Amino acid sequence: MTLEAPAKLNLTLTVVGRRADGHHLLDSLFVLLELADRLLLMPGCSGLRVEGEGAADLPLGEDNLAWRGLQAGLDADQGLACLALEKRIPAAAGLGGGSSDAAAAWRLGRAWRGLDDTAADDDLGGLARIGADVPFFAARLPAARVTGIGEQIEAVPPMNEHVVLVHPPFGLSTPAIFAELRPDEWGRLQNDLLAPARRLRPELDDLFAIVTEAGGEPRLTGSGPTIFCLTDDPERAGALATGVRDAGIRVTVTHTRDAAASIDRIIEEE
Asked: In CATH, what number does 162-255 get?
């Protein structure tokens, strides 16, 4: 069985509180992107194989979110199952790649057992313990309002937008961003994590300026550092991407999704 694990954007991200256990409460609008990792679950062996962009830097076994998602989906020993992960989404980029991998692996594990691979309300709390964005991806919605610590999902209408992703040559740690976030910054910006991201990586100011000069309206997704621009004009998206690339910065042009990915079953002919 194969399944795409899409990247996401946070169109908005507002911090609305903090629990006694230290977890921040968020109110965010998520959308899925065509940019996606790809997972393959197959019989005959056991373990995890990762290849593609940044694969050498990713952990294997229990520290890998995809493997944790698969184990949660299998729920028990279901025989030998090998998970192969092809990475296309940059890590530590604010695009939700690891959480999306976990949700996709969870769905594959559920399907392996012959169960529904859409997360029900009872599943969301457990999935949030793997990662705050995992419930959104497991809910199989192209767009949603996500609240709480990520476990409360409400469908919203999907978008139809071309997306230009600008990839800085560095990552950002989500825990480090939240540690840097100040309470007086809650609810002040389109993305409340922008201010701490800029303090930790002042280079973001230069990148925002480059994107603006190229004709874009730059925004930060999640905890960053990926910058994105939206447009309904494919020619404008292409021109913007060219302008940013000419400044020596890596760019991806993609599109929002109108539906979540579905599992494909591979049947070998005899």
From this structure: 3.30.70.890
pTM > 0.90: yes
User: φ, ψ for residue 89 (rounded to 5)?
Assistant: -90, 125
Residue ranges with strand state E in the chain: 2-18, 24-43, 47-52, 81-87, 143-148, 152-155, 162-167, 219-220, 227-231, 250-255
Query: Residue 25: helix, strand or coil by DSSP?
Result: strand
Q: For the chain, give every domain's residue range.
A: 2-155, 162-255
Q: How much is the pLDDT for 60?
A: 79
Cα separation, 199 vs 208, in Å, equals 14
Task: Give the C-alpha separation, 94 to 171, whole Å.
Answer: 9
Q: Please tell me the predicted confidence (pLDDT) of residue 43.
A: 86
- Encode pLDDT of 165-208 as tens digits: 999 999 999 999 999 999 999 999 999 999 999 999 999 999 99
* 133 in active site: yes
The answer to whether 8 is a known catalytic residue is: yes
Please tell me the predicted confidence (pLDDT) of residue 269.
54
Q: How many residues does the chain have?
A: 270
Q: Where are the beta strands (DSSP E) in 218-266?
A: 219-220, 227-231, 250-255
Question: What are residue 191's DSSP bridge partners?
Answer: 13
Q: Give the C-alpha separation, 131 to 91, whole Å.
A: 14
- The CATH number corresponding to 2-155 among 3.30.300.30, 3.60.15.10, 3.40.190.170, 3.30.230.10 equals 3.30.230.10
Please pick, among 37, 123, 133, 192, the residue that the annotation labels catalytic: 133
